[in-house]
Structure formats: structure tokens, C-alpha cells
């Protein structure tokens, strides 16, 4: 919910050329505001009893106008915008009130409540501008982000933006359809153009662009649709690959699973069509057929389709089936791997999946339903000094425990059960195999959760670093155990044999 500390804001870039902007105040802050406004071509009027030296010089040179004395509402008469930059709270308030009465946009420096508009932190690369705002709630954060982007975006962006702006008319003529234009841009940016500019070889860059813009240059590949099967990772957008990010930025349509985090979807191109094709328990077959049909239909219509899956598309993700369907219909595809839940959950729980002293191998297992459990090689799974990463197992923990112990796994084998791995609400429950179902039930662990079972799981206690520390048998319970879909089932009374073993 918003409040006065961080109101919802609508960003805009204003053309102030020749328009009067009033700056109230004559000190260093007013000077900074005045000079930024001058850069934007505004007609700057500074109102203050006295001006600091630089402002005075500007006034003497006729670059700004000076209104001497204390603020009076009539100063706003010609203004389109006003900035109150005095250290006198009463004056700032008067400017805000007078602006309000005249419907003139007023910014009071460092005062969100009094401001009707805010000035963002910004990065400029020629005509390209990035404005960053925290809504006034955390300006430092916006500034820090600005520093980072400053470091990342070199000056070739300015040259590129200038070059493309100069050819804007020809570009639109060459690719009238926005989708084709975007693809052409993506291709241009992926090519050597920016590299030329970065190395100061502007003529070569221009020649390259010229060739692209020449009518009749064949670009058959740009009009054929295709599907990228992309791994979105476990939820933290920072775990996306750069390649995935680029494809999300170029996509026309994104068909995503329910498991894909909102933070990841927020990185998609703004006008990409987002379609949630997530499966709910019970409707797998029909939904899968529909997903195949959608991918094929969109690709045939010439669209760039991203089929976005949680984790990695080839780990319990039906990626193989989807590619088979695409191949059968002659649709072009590529695959971008993602960080699968086992890797992410292990990392974010501080559990090395292999360790010279504890585990020499790792098995990825799905425990989706009783039938999938029957298909597993239990004697092999029960062996020591290996790690099991069990997907989709929340509802099957009791069966897992019973079978593993029956096939010889030590009931004292440590586990770490990671719920919402890598996400802000991650929880890690630890204990021993013997108490696994009871612990999961006690802390009401819900899907999505990944079970890590093996000697290495004990390291979560010492190596954890993300979120709160692991919950164990003595941790207080914070969540009600009222039954919910996808929640760990209560453990039946332990079998007598287990009681003895434990
Ligand atoms: N292709 C996905 C797995 C899909 S199966 C991947 O590579 O990760 C869905 C199962 O993955 C869930 O039931 C859960 O066991 C696991 N999972 C996916 N994301 C998870 C997360 N953020 N935290 C914990 N487990 C997760």
C-alpha cells in the first residue's frame, strides 16, 4: 500500500525548451537544479533574496533571471514548473501551496509530502536517458542503482542512440511492422554495430547500418517464428542467465509455468504477451497438449515464443516432450538451461551437494506420486555417501522415509527440506530421515519444496547464509499445520523397528 512516503508515481520526460521554470532559493541546491534545467533548455528564473556566486554569475550573464526578495505567489505567473530549494520550511510550504492553487507542478527538494512531482536519479547516454525513482522513499537506493548502471553502460550507447535516431525515418520505412522492427534491432544489437562504435569506428558503423537499411536485403530468418525453451531458475531473478534475459526482452509471447517467479516475469519485454500455462494437479495431460498447440500456433504466426519453465527445462520439466512436438511440426527451437531447484536450493541452504568427505554422487529423483516411487531403484537410492535431491516429494515424505530405511539407509541420515528456495520466503527444515515426515508436518512445509537427503545435509547448520537459519526439531512453530493442498501429510506413528533404530 502506498502512503505519503512513497506515493505511486507516473514517470514522464518533459520538454522544457523555452518554458519558464521557477527555482526558489539561492544556495547550492538551487544552483544544481538551475543548471540541470538550463541543460534541458528551460528558461530559468531564480527567486531568492540573494544568490550564491555561480548563480549570481549566471544572472549577470543573462542566462538566468533573478527575482530578488522573499517568495510571492505572483512569481509563479509564467511558470510551468517550480522547484522549492530553500532551507526555510515555511517558504517551501508557501511555494507548494501557491503551486497547488495554480495547478503548477511543484517539487520541494527532499520533501516527498510537499512535492507534486519528483526528480529522478538519471543516467544519460546521449539521447538515451534512464530515470530511477524510489518514489522518494529511499533516494539513496536510486542513487546507488544509478552508480551501478553508470558503470555498466559505456558511451557507445550514446553513439548508438544518436546513430539510430538519425536514421529513424529510414528504419521505420524499412521495417514498418513493429515486431519486425524489434527483431531487426535485436539482430543489429547482437551484431558488430555497437562494437564499432565502442572502438570509435563510426564510419564502419554507419556503413553497416546503411547495408541493413538497403531495401531488398533478405531477412527471411527474421520473419519465421521460433520457440526458445528457457529455464527461469528457482525464483530469484538474479539467477537467470543473460541469455534468458535477452530472450525475455525479445519475446512476443511468453508461455510460462506457475512456478516461474514474478520477479522473473517482471523482466520480460513490457508488451510481450504473458500466458500462464501452469498445470494444476490432475489436468496434466490436457494442459500439456494445449501447451504444445499454443507454442506451435504462435511460432507459425511468426512470433518469437519463449516457453519459460521453472528451474531447468530438462530436469523434470517435460522439456523433451515439448521439443519433440516442435520438431514434429517443423518449428525452429533453441534451449537455454536454467538453474534447477536442486542446485539453487542446495546453494541457498548452504548444502554442498557433493563433498569429498561426505558424498561422491548426486541423484535427482522425482517423488511425484506413488507410481513414480514404484519405478525407483530403492536399493541404489538407499546407499550411503550419496546425496538425493527429491523433487515434488512433499506429499510423499512418509513413503520415502519408510522405503529408504527398509532398503538400508541409516535413519539418522540428515535431511534439509527447502521450501521456496532462493525466494524471500525461503524456509529450510532440517533433521534426520527418521523424523522427516513429522518435522515437515510440524513446520507445515508446502510445495514447492525440495528434499536434500544425505550426509551433506548436516552442513546446513553451519554453512547457511540466506534467510533465517534452518528450523529443527526444537525450533518454535510459526505456521499453522491446518491441512492445505500440497502440504506435508502428518506422519503416522513411527514403525516399531524405526523406534528402536532411532
Ligand atoms: N524444472 C524444474 C522442476 C520442476 S518439478 C527445475 O529444474 O527446478 C517441480 C518441483 O521442483 C517442485 O515440486 C519442487 O520440488 C521443485 N522446486 C522448483 N522450484 C523450487 C523452489 N524455488 N524451491 C524449492 N523447490 C522447488
From TrEMBL:
Keywords: Cobalamin biosynthesis, Lyase, Methyltransferase, Multifunctional enzyme, NAD, Oxidoreductase, Phosphoprotein, Porphyrin biosynthesis, S-adenosyl-L-methionine, Transferase. The keyword NAD applies. It comes from the Bacteria. NAD(+) binds at residues 28-29, 49-50. Its EC number is 2.1.1.107, 1.3.1.76, 4.99.1.4. It catalyses: uroporphyrinogen III + 2 S-adenosyl-L-methionine = precorrin-2 + 2 S-adenosyl-L-homocysteine + H(+); siroheme + 2 H(+) = sirohydrochlorin + Fe(2+); precorrin-2 + NAD(+) = sirohydrochlorin + NADH + 2 H(+). S-adenosyl-L-methionine binds at residues 234, 310-312, 315, 340-341, 392, 421. Residues 156-213 form the Sirohaem synthase dimerisation domain. Residues 125-152 form the Siroheme synthase central domain. Residues 474-502 are annotated as: Disordered. One of its GO terms (biological process) is methylation. SUPFAM superfamilies: NAD(P)-binding Rossmann-fold domains (SSF51735), Siroheme synthase middle domains-like (SSF75615), Tetrapyrrole methylase (SSF53790). The modification Phosphoserine is found at residue 134. The active site is at 257 (proton acceptor), 279 (proton donor). Pfam families: CysG_dimeriser, NAD_binding_7, Sirohm_synth_M, TP_methylase. Pathway: Porphyrin-containing compound metabolism; siroheme biosynthesis; siroheme from sirohydrochlorin: step 1/1; Porphyrin-containing compound metabolism; siroheme biosynthesis; sirohydrochlorin from precorrin-2: step 1/1; Cofactor biosynthesis; adenosylcobalamin biosynthesis; precorrin-2 from uroporphyrinogen III: step 1/1; Cofactor biosynthesis; adenosylcobalamin biosynthesis; sirohydrochlorin from precorrin-2: step 1/1. Residues 1-209 are annotated as: Precorrin-2 dehydrogenase / sirohydrochlorin ferrochelatase. InterPro entries: 4pyrrol_Mease, 4pyrrol_Methylase_sf, 4pyrrole_Mease_sub1, 4pyrrole_Mease_sub2, CobA/CysG_C, NAD(P)-bd_dom_sf, Siro_Cobalamin_biosynth, Sirohaem_synt_dimer_dom_sf. Residues 227-436 form the Tetrapyrrole methylase domain. Residues 225-502 are annotated as: Uroporphyrinogen-III C-methyltransferase. PANTHER family: SIROHEME SYNTHASE, SIROHEME SYNTHASE-RELATED. In the N-terminal section; belongs to the precorrin-2 dehydrogenase / sirohydrochlorin ferrochelatase family. In the C-terminal section; belongs to the precorrin methyltransferase family. NCBIfam families: cobA_cysG_Cterm (TIGR01469), cysG_Nterm (TIGR01470), PRK06136.1 (NF004790), PRK10637.1 (NF007922). This is Siroheme synthase. It comes from Luteimonas endophytica.
Amino acid at each position: 500500500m502506498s502512503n505519503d512516503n512513497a506515493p505511486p508515481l507516473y514517470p514522464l520526460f518533459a520538454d522544457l525548451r523555452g518554458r519558464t521554470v521557477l527555482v526558489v532559493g539561492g544556495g547550492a541546491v538551487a544552483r544544481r537544479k538551475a543548471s540541470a534545467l538550463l541543460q534541458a533548455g528551460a528558461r530559468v528564473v531564480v527567486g531568492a533574496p540573494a544568490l550564491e556566486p555561480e548563480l549570481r554569475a549566471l544572472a549577470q550573464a543573462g542566462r538566468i533571471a533573478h527575482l530578488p526578495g522573499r517568495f510571492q505567489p505572483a512569481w509563479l505567473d509564467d511558470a510551468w514548473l517550480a522547484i522549492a530549494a530553500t532551507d526555510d520550511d515555511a517558504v517551501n510550504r508557501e511555494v507548494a501551496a501557491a503551486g497547488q492553487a495554480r495547478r503548477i507542478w511543484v517539487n520541494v527538494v527532499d520533501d516527498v509530502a510537499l512535492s507534486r512531482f519528483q526528480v529522478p536519479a538519471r543516467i544519460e547516454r546521449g539521447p538515451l536517458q534512464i530515470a530511477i525513482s524510489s518514489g522518494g522513499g529511499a533516494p539513496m537506493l536510486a542513487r546507488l542503482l544509478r552508480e551501478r548502471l553508470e558503470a555498466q553502460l559505456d558511451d557507445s550507447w550514446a553513439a548508438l542512440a544518436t546513430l539510430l535516431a538519425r536514421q529513424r525515418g529510414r528504419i521505420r520505412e524499412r521495417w514498418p511492422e513493429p515486431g519486425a522492427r524489434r527483431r531487426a534491432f535485436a539482430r543489429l544489437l547482437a551484431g558488430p554495430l555497437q562494437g564499432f562504435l565502442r572502438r570509435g569506428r563510426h564510419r564502419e558503423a554507419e556503413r553497416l547500418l546503411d547495408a541493413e537499411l538497403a531495401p531488398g536485403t533478405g531477412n527471411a530468418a527474421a520473419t519465421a517464428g521460433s520457440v526458445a525453451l528457457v529455464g527461469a531458475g528457482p525464483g530469484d531473478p538474479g539467477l537467470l542467465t543473460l541469455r534468458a534475459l535477452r530472450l525475455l526482452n525479445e519475446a512476443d509471447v511468453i508461455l510460462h509455468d506457475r512456478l516461474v517467479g514474478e520477479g522473473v516475469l517482471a523482466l520480460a519485454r513490457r508488451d510481450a504477451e504473458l500466458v500462464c500455462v501452469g498445470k494444476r494437479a490432475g489436468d496434466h495431460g490436457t494442459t500439456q497438449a494445449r501447451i504444445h498447440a499454443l507454442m506451435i500456433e504462435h511460432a507459425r504466426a511468426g512470433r518469437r515464443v519463449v516457453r519459460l519453465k521453472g528451474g531447468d527445462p530438462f530436469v523434470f520439466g517435460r522439456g523433451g516432450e515439448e521439443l519433440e512436438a516442435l520438431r514434429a511440426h517443423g518449428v525452429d527451437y533453441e534451449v537455454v538451461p536454467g538453474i534447477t531447484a536442486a542446485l539453487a536450493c542446495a546453494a541457498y541452504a548452504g548444502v554442498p551437494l557433493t563433498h569429498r568427505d561426505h558424498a561422491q554422487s548426486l541423484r535427482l529423483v522425482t517423488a511425484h506420486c506413488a507410481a513414480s516411487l514404484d519405478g525407483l531403484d530403492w536399493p541404489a537410492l538407499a546407499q550411503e555417501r550419496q546425496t538425493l535431491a527429491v523433487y515434488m516429494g512433499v506429499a510423499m515424505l512418509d513413503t520415502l522415509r519408510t522405503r529408504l530405511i527398509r532398503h538400508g539407509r541409516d535413519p539418522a541420515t540428515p535431511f534439509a527440506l527447502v521450501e521456496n528456495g532462493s525466494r524471500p520466503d525461503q524456509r529450510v527444515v532440517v533433521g534426520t530421515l527418521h523424523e522427516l515426515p513429522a518435522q515437515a508436518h510440524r513446520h507445515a512445509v508446502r510445495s514447492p519444496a525440495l528434499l536434500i537427503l544425505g550426509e551433506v545435509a548436516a552442513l546446513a547448520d553451519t554453512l547457511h547464509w540466506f534467510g533465517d537459519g534452518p528450523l529443527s526439531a526444537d525450533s518454535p512453530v510459526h505456521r499453522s499445520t491446518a491441512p492445505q493442498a500440497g502440504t506435508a501429510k502428518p506422519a503416522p506413528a513411527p514403525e516399531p523397528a524405526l523406534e528402536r533404530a532411532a
